Amino acid sequence: ALSLQVVAAADERAYECDTASITFGPTVLFQTRIHRFAVSNPSGLALPYAWRIERAIGGGSSEAAANAYKISPAAGRIPSGGRQEFTIRFSPLEVENFAAMLNAQIPGLPEPSPPLVIAL
After folding, report:
1. What is the pLDDT of residue 75?
2. pLDDT the model gives residue 52
3. How many CB atoms lie within 10 A of CB 96?
4. How many Cα neighbours within 13 Å face the side chain of 88?
5. Strand 75-78 to strand 69-72: parallel, antiparallel, or no bridges (unpaired)?
6. SS3 at position 115
7. For the chain, N or C: smaller number of CB within 10 Å?
8. pLDDT, tens digit, 9 for 90 and up, residues 66-103
9. Could you tell me if residue 108 is left (phi over 0), alpha (psi between -120 and 50 degrees) or otherwise beta?
10. pLDDT tens, position by position, 30-61
């Protein structure tokens, strides 16, 4: 006789992040400023993510302005009950309005949950 054991988890994906916006101080061209923040996963499921940096709507910023930001790690998974620290770098290459949005793409996030978006 062959025995089969099945294990399943029933939970919804969730995140916790205390950072709603990041403001970088005045930065000289070709210099870099760094800010760190964390995202926690209180759910019983792994939390996959992929960050996108987008132009701020109505902010008058250009696509080049959004390119002044880099986030690391840009994609991955936060394990159940885990925490991930992220580093965002701001490196302006021209004088411009650098308004942008940091948007986490999280598949399977339940409908009433707000998207994880951080103003830059």
Report:
1. 98
2. 95
3. 13
4. 25
5. unpaired
6. coil
7. N
8. 789 999 999 999 999 999 999 999 998 888 778 889 99
9. left
10. 899 999 999 999 999 999 999 999 887 765 55
Q: Is the peptide bond before 73 cis (omega within 30 degrees of 0)?
A: yes
Backbone angles phi, psi at 67, to 5 degrees: -70, -10
CA dihedral in degrees (49, 52, 56, 62; nearest 10)? 180
Amino acid at 27: T
pLDDT band at 19 (very low <50, low <70, confident <90, very high): very high
* Angle (CA) 109 40 6, round 5°: 65
CA distance 25 to 85: 21
Q: Which residues contact 17 (CB under 8 A, 6 or more apart)?
A: 37, 38, 39, 40, 116, 118
Strands 75-78 and 47-55: antiparallel
The answer to whether residues 48 and 77 touch, using CB atoms and an 8 Å cutoff, is: yes
What is the pLDDT, as a whole number, of residue 1? Answer: 78
Distance CA 109, CA 57 (A): 23
